[in-house]
Amino acid sequence: MKLNIKVFSLLLLLCATSCTSYKKVPYFQETGDPGEFETPSYSDRSVVRFQPDDVLAVTVNVVGEQKIALDYNLPIQPAATSFEGDENYVDQGIGRQTYLVSKNGEIDFPTLGLIKVAGYTQEELQDNIKVLLRGRMKIDPVVTVRLMNFKIMITGEVNRPGQITVNKDRIDLFEALTLAGDLTVFGKRDHVYVRRQSPDGKFKYVRLDISKADVTASPYFYLRQNDMVYVQPTKARTLQSDIALWGTITSVASFIMTVVTYVAFTSRK
Question: Any idea what the Cα angle at residue 127 is, between residues 122 and 132, rounded to 5°?
Fold first, then answer.
């Protein structure tokens, strides 16, 4: 009885899985399947802009005048340590001087006071701080700005769901999925959602089809801080869960019947 149920469940699962069209599985599909092709990109407009609650590392250096530069830098913080066992964690806090962006989108900068940073890109903020410092120094300073809390969440049908800390200024959807171990066999390539929060607090959800080569043209292909990526499961995944639940129920029912039969048999003696 148990063997027949397991065989039936396996055949049913294989049948459901085989119903998935092969065309929905490969990435970078292009009409006519040419050997070489190009796709449009949104990279020139998909830049990360700072927003409230971001943590920024800002350092100012002046060649030959380091004593002057000290007035425009926070005290160096102790080196941060990475979390052991988390292969997706990248330490970004070594010796950085960090600022928390206020709800008003400002940071309190040494000597200069409050500076508006929300809405700026990394390069724009570096240039703006240089302009503010230029009249105070004989030599143009070297200003470095880094976003320290660039994190994204990946959930759904991926092999390693969780939070990923990004240690560079830009990451695209495929890079993020690679860090999450890629999609499982039950992940729907044409139902990958990106959730992004706007400055007014509202969330927007966009569905992407990563099996198509032109997915790179989407403004959501390049991810931003606090984006969430969700991979929707196929019907076969739901069926697998139902089969597993049915198998558990059947096993429990079989065990109860065995106990009842044994009790009834022994009570007759």
Answer: 125
Q: Provide the residue-wise pLDDT of the chain in tens; the chain has 269 residues.
A: 444 555 455 455 555 445 555 556 566 666 555 566 676 666 666 689 999 999 999 999 888 777 778 888 887 665 544 444 454 433 344 445 799 999 999 999 999 999 999 999 999 999 999 999 988 888 889 999 999 999 999 999 999 999 999 988 889 999 999 999 999 989 999 999 999 988 788 999 999 999 988 898 898 999 999 999 999 998 865 655 544 454 555 565 565 666 556 556 566 65
pTM of the predicted model as reported, rounded to 2 decimal places: 0.68
What is the rounded distance in angstroms from the CA atom of residue 149 to the CA atom of residue 179?
A: 17
Q: Which amino acid is at 46?
A: S
CA distance 237 to 184: 10
Partnered with residue 144 across adjacent β-strands are: 59
Contact present, 61 and 141 (Cβ < 8 Å)? yes
**Distance of alpha carbon 253 from alpha carbon 246, whole angstroms:** 10
Domains located in the chain, CATH noted? 21-42+151-233 (3.10.560.10), 55-147 (3.30.1950.10)
**60 beta partners:** 143
Q: Which two tokens stand for residue 99?
A: 């600022």
What are 109's strand-pairing partners? 113
**128, 55, 65: which is closest to 96 by C-alpha?**
55
Q: Is 161 exposed, middle or buried (0-12, 13-18, 19+ CB in 10 A)?
A: middle
Residues 75, 88 contacting (CB under 8 angstroms) = no
